[in-house]
Every structure is written in structure tokens, then in C-alpha cells.
Amino acid sequence: MSSRRPTLRPLRAAVTSALLVGSLVALSGCTQVAEIFNGMQGQQPVAAVPTAAPAAAPEMAFNSQFTYDGSVALSSDVADDLELRLDVWAQDPKRTQEWTPGAEKTFGFAVNVHDQRVDEKAVLAQKRRVFISSISITSQTAQTSGQIQAPFQFSADPRSLVPTDTIRSDRGLLLNSFQGGLYVPETVIHGLPADTYGMTLEFAMTVWVEGNANDDASFSQQTVYQYLPVAVFSDAQAEAAQPAPTPTPTP
Question: Between the CA of residue 161 and those of 135, 168, 219, what are the distances in Å?
């Protein structure tokens, strides 16, 4: 088994959550998926992950493109011209300024793959297949007290998170299929320590990558890591960021 941490690319222009969700194939069983994910929090210890540098803007003490835009697209090359894509978006509240330590913070994410050597509409036999066999998310807080905690974490077999009619094998769930890869509509980050001002999520995805299209003997395994900084606001900051009420017209 080989494992590597690819050099992270600069964050791409984020897409809106509405466009992202609309472009994905809607899967059934969303409630069951959320229950599975939420039940996995707090089970395993977590390794330390990098802490994001403070942002230039004084209103955001933890630099986060995800928080600025409400969604983010991250990518890693798993082979030449073969890209693994991770999209993450704020689900509830959609206004990330309302992500406070005590609030329920719900996000969704999707994992897909794109073989740039062939047309997107090419048949599967012409594409280099990528299967995902496991996915885990761990967390590390940034706190004004200097403490570091891991309040949110889970790990799952992606085949357990999607309907049974998706394409799968002993290598995992097929990502580059017409069904749209792995789509998880929501999972919840529960309460955080009261002095938390940021949190870094580490996504670890174990994948099997086909070296040559339609060549079952050319698969190799690797683990892809992506890091997602998320800003967290105090209740006072969240209240101050609320939009001003619309004045009632005077008769």
C-alpha cells in the first residue's frame, strides 16, 4: 500500500452552494446518511493538523475561504491528468457568520474524479477508474486559551453512505460514474469549546487508481489528504453580522 500527501493547490474560486448542490445527482436516504455521520463523532483520537494563519480582516481571526464564500472546491492529482475533487458547502446555517461554538453547524460534501485525457462524456471503458474505499474526517480546534481539541471526527466506508444501486467493487465505490461519485448532503458539527475561534478539518480519502483505462491489473492504492480551515464566531459577532431589519413603510 502506498500513501502520499500531495501538495495542496491554491484554493480555486468557490462555487455557490446552490449551484453545487444543483449539479450533483440527488441521492435518496439523506436522513439516514446524516444519522450515520453524526453517530460517528467522538470515537477515535485525532492526529494534529496545521492551524490556519490569522486572516487580515479583523472580523475573522481564522483565515477560511470556506467561511468567506460558503463553499470551497479542493483538488488533488492522483495521476497525470487525473484529478480528485472535493467540494464542501455550508448547509445550515448557510450564513457562515452564524457558525458559533454552541450552534449546530451542518455542511455537505461531494467527492468526484475527472480524467482530463478523455472527454467528460466518454464511456467508462475509456476513463481511468478511481474507487474510494474509505473516508475519514478529523478536526483540530484553535482556541483563545491555547488549548487544542478534536471535537468532531468520523470514518466510514463510502459504500455504506449511498444507495445500493451505485457501482461498487471490493476496491470501494466508483467515483467516475454517471451516478456522480460520493455525495453526502449533510453532517453536523455539534458543540465546540466556548473559546473556539476556528477549526481545521482534515479529510483523508483512500482510493484505488487505475493506471491505464480498462486495465483491471493496473490499479494502485494511495491516500489523499485535504485540509479545510473553518472560522468560528462568538455569539456577539454573529449577532452583529445579522442583516439590518427592513424598515416598515410609513403610511
Answer: 11, 12, 23
